[in-house]
Fold these 2 entries.
Entry 1:
Amino acid sequence: MRVEPCCQALLAQLLPEVDPQRQGVCIDVGVGTFAFYCQIFAELNFKSLAIEPLPVKALKKLAEHPTLTLLPVCLSDQDGEQTLYVGKFAGIFNSNFSSLSPQWFGASGHARQAKTVTLQTLIYQQQIEQITCLKLDIEGWEWAVIKQLENIESHLLPAVVMFEYGGGVNRGKNQKGWAPEFFENTLNILKLLKTLGYGSGVLLDFAPDCQEITFDLHQLEISKLDKLFPPESVYGNIILFRDYQPSASQLSQLCKPYYRVNLLERLVNTLVSR
């Protein structure tokens, strides 16, 4: 399915229901060069933070929006500087695949130093009192950030967490974004969020014939979390809610327009599923 536009449609509809008074901040970590979630957040009149170490011109232009702040840093597990491995896909440099992990399949040998801040430091520096949505797309580094939720005060836990998983090949290959070290971290994220009280969730995968998978994290056994991911999974996003429960019918209605993929998307799927 068409993952990013579907996720954007879901958040555009559901975030105002989660936080109708717009009391919390929405944080877009790993903005990339397209699918600007921070723009959606700002247009919904949420205070929006865009965390992107390699901002493109279009993002810098968006940062002129009065409720959007661009921070050209990496969110990580330490303050200071770390090596950022510039992304590469199909032999072409692509900053969307840039990662702090040298083992990430999209990371190239081309590296640069990037300023890094922890989640706690970000909260302190930006004087954040409430987080409505934390969206993470940081190429294999999601666990390094999400594990910090365990150490922040409960009132600061995001109402909604969205994170990316997989990538590069389908799950059955056990390689690239599905290599054991990365898939284990995906499962670690789910285990921690379950412990922290997150329940209702929806999984959206790029596989052509995949539809949304709704689940209740409270009801899933930790030892069976891997069963959430179909064998044909390629990459996708999981959206989890802490104190909100959208209905399965509502999610289905919102996702249905994004089931079909076009020819180009099918070609990309074939390329990354080899």
Entry 2:
Amino acid sequence: MGMTRRAAEAMVVILSLTVAAASGGAKEQAVERWKAVEVAAAANEADEALLGRPLSLALDAECLYVADAQDCAVKVFSKDGRFLRAFGRKGRGPGELTFPSGVSVVGGRVYVADKLNYRIQIFDGEGKPRGGYPVPFAPDKVFAMGAETLLITGNPTGRRAGEMLLHIYGDAGRLRWEGLEARSSSDPMYDTFRNMILVCPGEEKDFYVVFRSGDRTILRFAGTGVLRGKTPVDERHAFRPLDMPFKGPKKRLLGFCWAAARDRGLFYLSAPEPVDGKDLGPGRRLSVIDKDGRLQAVVELPCPVHRFVVEEDRVFAIDDEGGLRIFEIVR
């Protein structure tokens, strides 16, 4: 039986919409490939410029700050990689550090997670001690959210019920909020890996949390600790399954993100890569994720990086040898 004119017109409209939707989907799936060109860093001959175990990086308007856990110091570089100064030494007194694992800078103040001294220390821009306060856990990373307001993370093993991963402290070390309960099972080592998180500061004191394994979402929190949303990350961001070599039943982790940064509304997530088929290590590929979780681009780095910060298409990173590397993203 023949098709009426009205039915034919309706079919044309449907086909047009279908083609348009398919075209839009194809466009949605397109992922740009960006290069990263290494910037020649200034030569540093001073012994203090060498990094022993750099665990955290932070930027202000002029400088890059690196928390060096091995040397028990914060090392300061210009943004072209020139070593400027270092402050801190091993110890428990004011201005002394034991395994500094986190650093953040705001308003001319440098905040350091003095991990094995169970405290936060505050320095001025020249490295002079300006106070601090103890915390009842080993602080891992610290993020300044404004004057005298700090977000501090811990590394719970899950041995005790009710342990929290996130803590917000106000002036004079007063606890304002804590949340994001640690995952807990009968295997503390397994839980240690499952509770590793990465934090990216946002705008207006908001912050974002990414689990390094297992959970493919980005959590958004207000500066008060209120959970504002969960964003699933594009499935095209690579992840690696790993069977943990622990005693007892086999346990599998999904290595989702080795390190993370955020700049101008975009997330930069580095996917872990397998090492000798038995472990996961840092990768050389950064996934650029937008606010809706979509993969917008992939940045190919010249080498694997353990941690990094991004500022206006410039990547400041720590490589596999613990060296400072600077890359310019070319779109």
